[in-house]
Amino acid sequence: MNGNLENIVTVIRYIEEHLTEKMNLDLIAGAVGYSKYHLHRMFLSTVGLSIHDYVKRRQLTEAAKLLVFSDKPILEISLLAGYESQQAFTNIFRQMYKKSPNEYRMEEEFYPLQLRFELEKYMEQVFSWDNRNDMKEKICFAKEEDIPLWMDLVCLIVDGYPHLDEKEYRKVLRDCIQEKRALILKRDGLAAAVMILNYDTGCIDFFGVHPLFRKNGIAKLFLDKVMNELLPDTEISITTFREGDKADTGYRKAYQALGFAEAELLVEFGYPTQRMVLTPDQQMVPAPTGGQTDE
């Protein structure tokens, strides 16, 4: 895995240095000297996103930042985001952010689609966990000192949580830790997975698994703990992207693979979502291993 991480770090560094240019898999593979087919598989397996999706989301995130924190014309921002026309940029921006660039600018509230995927800190770590009982036993309530590790994970999986306000999230997280509603699984100084529960409603308010641990079945272990120990005989719910949402990188499919069924359509923070439910008698199966898996 560490060899792959070194390669992905090189690829991400190249992408970040060329965010204002039009990029595709062929160009990136040629620049870093890898087979495009090998690079595609390696990047998807490590990051949980295709290179195309990662580049698009990073460029749109930087464009959104310019919309809020600069007075550059939208046409100039469109070109800096790698688009040949303002209309093309507006179309994809609306698909991902659910509003036009001009509407986003007028609201003056920046939030990212995708932050830079930081992997350097994980170079010396091992991302396999052979003992499932050991994994399950180490799922525990988070403490104040776990907040930095927790937030590192949040920054990696921000693609699954539209409209995430980091400052507000930290405040809520501290309250959840005090109320014993925040669960964490740690490994080698990092958060492998985190979850925030609402005991009154049976809702999972936040659920994230580190991309490098998504093949370990951790999501199912968390759900087993919730349904067998913390909220037995209770319907569990979570909200995620609606069907067909272009911003969804695979979360909806992963929840369905874990046994969640569709429920009512919602709008949260102005964003269209859907509630998914898991009843005690529903069979949970491991999530698929491709793309976003254990989220």
From TrEMBL:
Keywords: Acyltransferase, DNA-binding, Transcription, Transcription regulation, Transferase. It is an enzyme of class 2 (transferase). Its EC number is 2.3.1.-. PROSITE patterns: GNAT, HTH_ARAC_FAMILY_1, HTH_ARAC_FAMILY_2. The keyword Transcription applies. GO terms for molecular function: acyltransferase activity. Residues 137-281 form the N-acetyltransferase domain. The keyword Protease does not apply. Residues 9-107 form the HTH araC/xylS-type domain. PANTHER family: RIGHT ORIGIN-BINDING PROTEIN. This is GNAT family N-acetyltransferase. It comes from Faecalicatena faecalis.
